[in-house]
Model the fold of this input.
Amino acid sequence: MSTSETSSSSSSSDSTTPHSTPRTSTRIVLASRPHGEPTQDNFRTETVELPAPAELGESELLLETLYLSLDPYMRGRMSDAESYADPVAIGDPIVGATVSRVVASADEKFTQGDIVLSYGGWQTHSVEKSGHVRRLDADSGLPLSTALGVLGMPGFTAWAGMNNIGHPQEGETVVVAAATGPVGSMVGQIAKLHGARAVGIAGGPEKVAYLKELGFDAAIDHRADDFTEQLAEATPDGIDVYYENVGGKVWDAVLPRLNTYARVPVCGLVSGYNATDLPEGPDRSGQLMGTVLKKSLTIRGFIQAEFADQMGDFLEEMTPRVQDGSVKYREDVVEGLDNAVDAFVGMLNGKNFGKLVVKVAE
Done:
């Protein structure tokens, strides 16, 4: 099942048919590094020239962006702090996965009209090496945008973290925060496939209700005044796997509930992505390390790219489940590249409901 919501609308700029050759691309670039929450002032929209088909280099493809993925990791790439990936340079387009249409090709393996998964970023058109894209099956019966969500990087992130680090077992309790997002919703459904109890944490009654539609055994609103008490009630036997997407107060409530030998795949810490200073209060690292020691915890950070060789296994296992509806997903679709900044900032504040994508062209 998929649910698509349009949160805003505007005309897509520079759209083209597969039979026309665009001469320019509209793109959103990083104008300055955000300090705290990004604002419109940190971005700039500009138009750049594109090469003619005859000017493409060896194995290059001229692509038209159809869908753009918006993901929390992009906030980290806007900062120049040391991280697992290089920051976006000032004046460069914001990075991001895209579903794109081939407009022109200098590689005989790709022809005009092919649909590919690419990394074109926040722009209407891009030029990419054919070795950096993957052809998509346009006749799969699924929306093309699923290649950016449930069957893309977010879905694979959930699958890889659970299979390689979480190792959920039958009868265990798995807890995941940001549970209605593309990663968290998949984590809960994978837990159920392994015979575990799935407990989801989300923000607001509507999202909590949706978790029950997905088959979670329990759903908790982290905004509730008695959140900690609700978590304890939902995990009477403790927590065996906690898939970390958020950090902050959710982690503070989860830590005392972890069982001996619990596993914690650390995928993201979105609650702190806009932070500019260390959190207030006492240093509790001693408490954390003491708990890690006493309970023999496994806390393992990961980036999905380290498991990239497993992508084929993921697609083989999960594609038929998505096609037959046994694995469900939800998308939040925004119309128009010019709405990407507002949608991105809203996502960092939890305003999206499901996988957030921008529809750039038909």
